[in-house]
Amino acid sequence: MSKIVIFGAGGRGGKAAVAEARRRGHEVTAVVRSPAAHRDLAADGVTVVAGDVTDAGDVAKAAAGHDAAIASVADLSVPPREFYTGAVRALGAGLADAGVSRLVFVGLASLLVGGSGVQIVDEPGFPQEYREFVSGHAAGLDALAETGLDWLYISPAGDFDHDGGRSGSYQIAGHGDLELRMTYPDFAIALLDEIDNPAHSRTHLAVTA
Predict the structure, then answer these.
(1) What is the pLDDT of residues 116-149, one digit of tens each?
(2) 127 CB-contact burial (10 Å; exposed 0-12 / middle 13-18 / buried 19+)
(3) Do residues 13 and 19 touch, judged by C-beta distance below 8 A?
């Protein structure tokens, strides 16, 4: 049994990660902006705390005494580049201060190389309205590479099936394909497998159903 701190635990990805971690018997600290708004997370083995993922002090406080961290975070009220670089730098400093080396960070398929051989974001027809958000994630990924953490940036090979349940399996994808779909519960299996038995480090891993 491990102790896992999950930043962004109130979102769909974070909630799925909390549920999968508890299914495996891990102790979980669920970090959210407002615990009062996420009382549904409270359960046996889950401690819900307030924290700002862009504040290294908050990160260190929440992560102290834990074995690994998961981040499934977003803040649409802040420019994406500012938010993701700030979050990654705070995670890098705060987790190091807390003695936590393993970080699994939930990312975007759009940064994967697609079937055409170029990044999906650069393929013809990619919706331009998403480019700023993707660029922010790309800056965050660059910032991850500058940390001393044992990090993994992991994303679906395509997009999420928002309504699907847990099939209990997934597979590693060789490239991105936005037509592919994966449920949050199955994605959480991949997240927790990379916590329990880390097989990939300092790379972008794509998984699909």
Answers:
(1) 999 999 999 899 999 999 999 999 999 999 999 9
(2) exposed
(3) no
User: What is the greatest pairwise CA distance in the chain?
Assistant: 48
Asked if residues 112 and 178 have their Cβ atoms less than 8 Å apart, the reply is no
Asked whether 195 and 104 are in contact (CB, 8 A), the reply is yes
Say what the pTM is. Answer: 0.97
168: left (phi over 0), alpha (psi -120 to 50) or beta: left
Query: What is the secondary structure of 133-149 as a DSSP string?
Result: HHHHHHHHHHHHHTS-S
CA angle, residues 10, 7, 186, in degrees to nearest 5: 70
Return all residues near 197 (Cβ < 8 A) that are at least 6 apart: none
Sorted by sequence, the CB contacts under 8 Å of residue 87 that are 6+ apart come out as 53, 54, 71, 73, 140
Half-sphere exposure of 53 (CA within 13 A, CB side): 28
Instruction: Identify the burial level of 105 via C-beta atoms within 10 angstroms of its C-beta, where 0-12 means exposed, 13-18 middle and 19 or more buried.
Output: buried
DSSP class of 35: G
Q: How many CA atoms lie within 13 A of 142 on its CB side?
A: 9
Per DSSP, the residues of 95-117 read HHHHT--EEEEE--GGGSBBTTS
